[in-house]
Amino acid sequence: MIPTLAQHEVNPGLPRDSRENYLYFTLPVCINFQRSSPAMWTAALATWEDEITRYVFFPERLAETPIDQIRADLVKHRLALQPNKHTLIWTTIARTLHAYYEDDPRNIIKEADRDAGKLIALLQKTHRKRFPYLSGPKLSNYWPFILSSYTDVQLQNAQEISIIPDTHVLQSSAQLGITPLGATPLQVEAAWKLLLKDSGVNPSQVHPVLWNWSRNKFQPEV
Fold first, then answer.
1. What is the CA angle 203-204-209, rounded to 5?
2. In this structure, are 36 and 58 located in the same domain?
3. Alpha carbon distances (Å) from 155 to 56, 100, 103, 113, 145
4. How many helices (H) and strands (E) are present in the chain, helices listed first?
5. Do 114 and 199 sit in the same domain of this protein?
6. 182 and 145 in one domain?
7. What would the pLDDT profile of 158-197 be if each residue is shown by its tens digit?
8. pTM score, two decimals?
9. Are residues 120 and 83 part of one domain?
10. Which of 21, 35, 124, 200 has the most CB atoms at less than 10 Å from its CB?
C-alpha cells in the first residue's frame, strides 16, 4: 500500500467540478518547472486571492488585457519568476484554451475521451505546439495527476500516468539503484513503468513518496 503524504498544492478550495477549479489547476502547472513547487503553488494562491490579479486565471480576461499588464500581475506575487518566459508560456496556453476549448480545460479532457493515455498523447503529440512545456514528459503527466487529485475528473487508464520524472524523482530513482545517475526523464519513466507492471500500483502513486524522500535528503519522514 502506498502511503498518503501531505500535498503542497495549496489552493482556494473551489468546487471540484467548477471551471474555475480546473483553471486554477491547469495554468500554474504550465510554469511549474525548474523551481520550488511548494513556492509556486503558494504564489498561485496569493495571485488568486488578490482580487486585482485573479483575472490571470481566466483566458477570456487575458485575451483583452495588454501583455505588459499580464506580465506585471504574474510577477506581483512571484508566480512568474522569469517574467518574459513564464508570461509567454502562460498566455500561450491561455490563448489555446480561448481559441480551441471555450476557455475551459474540461473540454481538453473531453477531446481525450477522459482517458489518461489519450490525454497525454494529445499534449505530447497531437497538439504539441498548442501546449508549450505542458507537452513535456514531466508536465504532461503531472497535469493529469493533479487533476485526478484536486478535481472531480475520473480518468480511465490512470496507469498510463507516469512516475512524473522531475528532479526529485530522478534523484530518488538513482538513490534506489533503479536508474543510473544521469538518466534522462524518459529513461526514468520507462524504468518505473516496467518495474510496476502488473503490480496493481500506478507509477503516479509512487511519485509523492519519491518526491518527499529526495526533498528530505533521503531521510525518513519525522
1. 95
2. yes
3. 27, 21, 21, 9, 10
4. 11, 0
5. no
6. no
7. 999 999 888 899 999 999 999 999 999 889 999 998 999 8
8. 0.88
9. yes
10. 21
Q: Which domain holds residue 97?
A: 19-160
pLDDT by 10-residue block (mean), the chain, 222 residues: 56 97 98 92 98 98 98 98 97 98 98 97 94 92 94 95 90 94 91 91 89 85 55
- Considering the domain architecture, whether residues 135 and 202 belong to the same structural domain is answered as no
Residue 79: which of 90, 94, 69, 68 has the closest Cα? 90
| Same domain assignment for residues 144 and 173 | no
- Do 179 and 219 meet the contact criterion of CB atoms below 8 Å apart? no
Residues in the chain, overall count = 222
Residue 176 falls inside a structural domain: yes
Burial letters 150-189, b for 16+ CB under 10 A, else e: bbebebeebbbbbbbbbebbbbbbbeeebbeeebebeebb
The pLDDT of residue 3 is 36
